[in-house]
Design goal:
This protein folds into two domains: 77 residues, Rossmann fold, CATH 3.40.50; 145 residues, no CATH class. Helix content is 56%, strand content 6%. It has eight helices and four strands, in the order E-H-E-H-E-H-E-H-H-H-H-H. A four-stranded parallel β-sheet has the order 3-2-1-4, with helices on one face.
């Protein structure tokens, strides 16, 4: 029986390269994902690996690279791309990130002028976003509970099910939508325009350091099912 083709990410790194060498030594066909064509990728070619250039932050390229190969497994102990920025990927729990930006917003509200607005209007807007946070966040947690899959944002690989029902039919990340809405409610309550940068910064941070890494893992674990899901449901709203 022929051996399956194994797809290795981080193949030009120290650990990934060692995995490629071991697989080739055991006569497994190897497809190695590389970031660019260089001396390291040429060395993999000479050893007999099939090298594919792909951006690890692009799910479409990952899906194409996976075709005809065993499920992707990231063998590198460090982030796929070098640098301190990438070391932040799914390292800080989103609720803590939300608390951090909320604290910054409170400081900003004390240092910048607030706008004059009727209390009833201010509280109504605050309540709208607070309720929106619950509408998105609470059902999301319950859906994960019913599916018996992990809600730990730092252990994405432990996901055992692809949840697409309930609130997940309208957004792929309702928990993060809920946290963002919570920050918007704080902006409304403080009535300080500069604090609006808080939820925007949170959205950008979570997208780069939490959602994109999650998408890579989900694509690797669930393949076409996740690809079809993300084509029909937006990342946010």
């Amino acid at each position: 029986m022929s051996k399956p083709r194994i797809l290795v990410t981080g193949a030009t790194g120290k650990t990934g390269g060692a995995v490629v060498n071991e697989l080739l030594a055991r006569d497994f066909p190897v497809r190695a994902i590389v970031h660019s064509r260089d001396a390291r990728s040429e060395e993999l070619d000479r050893k007999g690996a099939e090298t594919v250039v792909a951006d690890m932050f692009d799910p479409d390229q990952l899906l194409d690279a996976r075709q005809g190969a065993a499920p992707i497994r990231d063998r590198s102990p460090t982030p796929i791309k070098d640098g301190v920025m990438n070391a932040l990927e799914h390292r800080v729990p989103p609720p803590l990130v939300c608390l951090f930006f909320a604290a910054v917003m409170l400081v900003v509200s004390r240092l910048t002028p607030a706008i004059q607005i009727e209390d009833i209007v201010r509280l109504a807007i605050t309540g709208f976003f607070a309720v929106s946070s619950l509408v998105f966040g609470a059902p999301a947690f319950m859906a994960f509970g019913r599916a018996k899959t992990t809600i730990n944002p730092r252990n994405i690989e432990a996901a055992s099910a692809l949840v697409t029902s309930g609130v997940y039919k309208y957004t792929r990340n309702p928990m993060y939508v809920g946290l963002t809405a919570l920050l918007w409610s704080l902006t409304a309550y403080l009535a300080a325009p500069w604090t609006a940068l808080g939820p925007v910064a949170f959205l950008l941070f979570i997208t780069r350091f939490q959602i994109i890494p999650e998408e890579r893992v989900m694509l690797a674990k669930f393949g076409r099912a996740y690809d079809e899901y993300r084509k029909h449901v937006r990342r946010w709203l």
